[in-house]
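Reopening this ticket.

The earlier resolution said the output was attached, but the attachment link was broken on my side. Pasting everything inline this time so it's all in one place.
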Amino acid sequence: MGNEKSIQKTLFDNESKFKNRKIIINKSKILEVLDDLLKIQSLQELKLKLRQLKTNLSSTNNDKIGILNIDKNGDTIEIKYNYIINELTQIEETLTLERTKYYLRRLKKALVEVKTNKINDINLNRWKEYEEIITDSLWLFDKRDSSGAHLAWYWGNFIPQIPHQLMLRYTKKGDWVLDPFVGSGTTLIECRRLGRNGIGVEINPEVVKKAKQLIEKEQNKFNVDIITNIEVRGI
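Inline output:
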């Protein structure tokens, strides 16, 4: 029984990785295909062509029209497989030709135009691709993130998912984040993960020492600066 569960979990994990992988699409080819789809006047024919397009995108072996690239050379688009398949499925499930073409034009726009703002790095034309960002008003987490340098040793520290979500929404890579209550360094560890510089303040020297050790354990792949100081004020 235990072996069956292990096999099922492995299959589920592999399927999840397959769906969440990134694919490289020939930009001129996908735009040509979408333009051809927009010219079709039969909803039934359009749905058939959409199913064929999804098959072509599934793997290079199934690609009969040269829409997939094996590398980023040339004019290409890197995109999450799951995102574009879900978009095409939504288009396929529409009930009217008008609505189908509306979604096709929206997808085309998402592939060629980048729309960002001043407070984060999110491409608003492809916001559904950011699966790690929770878009619901209520955030539900199964358990505390204990990966990497995160440890729940300090009393009262919040879970890493909170600063993670907030930084993705309200900061850009390279921005500075101030944490006035460092504690175990949860926020500053997330700064390293997400490519944000961080400044932390903590009045307890022992806590600062341990927090620094944990922060240094976290990989600094974006080469950001983390500053942790002790501030003690007399009364």
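Reporter confirms the inline version is readable. Strands lie at 22-26, 68-69, 76-80, 176-179, 197-202, 226-230. The first helix runs from residue 2 to 20.
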